[in-house]
User: Fold NudC domain-containing protein 1 from Sinocyclocheilus anshuiensis.
Amino acid sequence: MALPNCSLKVNRELLDPSFESYRLSLDSIPAYNVELDAAVAEVKLKDSQYTLDHVRAFGMYNYLHIDPWYEDSVYFVDSKGRVLNLTVTLDTALGKPREMFRFESDPISCEGEQLCASLSLTSATWAALSDGTGKLTLLRTSKRGESSHIKWEPMFRERLGEPFIIVHSLAHVRSHVHTIEVLLLRVQKDPSDTKGSGFSISLEWITVDNSAGQGENEERKYGVRKRRMMKGKSVPHYAAVEPQGKGIVVASEKPFAFTEVDGLPLEEPPVEAMEVENSDPIYFWQQTEEDVTLNVRLPEGTTKDDIRFKLAVDCLRVRVGDHAPLLDGQLFAPVDPEASTWTIKDDKSLEVSLQKRSEGPLWSEVILEDRRGEYLMSDEQKSQLQQRLSYLTSEDLNPNPEKDKPPCNAQELEDCDMFPEDSSTLMRFDGATLKPTHVVSLGSHQFLFSVHIDPSEMPAFCLRHDVEALLWQPRPNQDNDVWEHISTFNALGYVQASKRDKKYATCAPNFSYAALCECLRRVFIYRQPSPVDTVLFNRKQGRQVGQVAKQQVANLDTNDPVLGFRATNERLFVLTANNLFVLKVNN
Assistant:
């Protein structure tokens, strides 16, 4: 079964083609320091946790958790087993973090490795907590912003197998049943993986609700109603459950697939459904400098009256009768509809001739993100291509030093030029069928970070597109644009690649700035362009500059490594082993 290939549609109105660079600002950033009574509950990797996946999942874990429902409120777990909260109202009077919950003393840990404690704020009144030994606790927190002094009440506790960290959780109510969806991540030994690292990655989607019957006056108990297991070969960059538990979205370097439900293996191995590229092409195409010609395969017995053909300047749609469109999407470049034609050849194929509006530039594809066609290159084009690339295949290091383009030197490549070996994918799975419904090949779009913009929606994620960093918001209820481009951070894709010691990245929920944090001490802040107070003049381009994007650097007064990093519209929170720093970014 072939998956529907989707694309990430960039909103051109959110791009700034005139953006030049960030200007370093020497304005100081007010920094406030809270000394912790006990160290953060950091769990360092053991010798047996030696793979890159262990580092990504646990070594780079963000120990600081921000509350999307209540502004400037953060949580972390300390070495005494306490869940602590710091809510900022006045920066100059921060006070001490408050204890919200304490783990019950249980010296008996499960077999295997113990992981760091993990927390996920499920709703405005609930939270999910893991102690790092394989136990899941669901807590009723009351309205945290209004009653920050009230201790959290455990409503569900259960051991769920090997240790895990909580990736995401959410709550919803349907027919008076309160349901909590929790997504757990594990890195497990895999004896069948003899050629790889010897480990596999599992994502377990657990549904807990209070549907069990109780007396009229008794509170209904919570219990596990469903367990769904996904397997993959790389720690996902992003994984989240959709509102109402209707599906799940996963972004990873290697694809995931559901393997079992409630402990029983799925009858049909879903791995087969992931083979996207194996189907035969449905059309072949050629081009010259003036036009593009397509030959589309037609069902047997198709007549001219069955063809539904629609061509505009920048899009093409072809369908047969009332069937699904054979071609439908945005063209690579504009065409002249009046000079373009179509005809049926030999009752087997539809020949479409598209007249390019701009002569010269060659197309790399006909319809954007549609990989179902095969490009047929003419002999003349093959010969021209070979001549252009001959200097790359010569036996001499540089056969013609007078040429403008010297041979490629791999040693001169920077980090920003490198991409993962595997082609990352972004996939959406249906919660009922557990089958993938949408897939996007991320290709060179490096994953940068995820962030909660709106607590009523799934976390947004940021991808590198060329030099920019684009923020995408999942919209599962929109059939056409499942992922919506909502903001752009100019040149951040290129800038972050130069930060070799970068550990965390994030942005403000109102998109006013993005921030990077190194392993030790330094924080970089990149603000959106803003109007300048004085008149500036660009001598190179001979024009006046109306806006400037500022870059600021903050140095923390500590030698401890950074363990957590979160942003609000006004503040950045930075957690180290013994301190919590609050940086006042916006007033």
In short: The chain is about 5% helix and 40% strand. The CA atoms of residues 40 and 577 lie 5 Å apart.
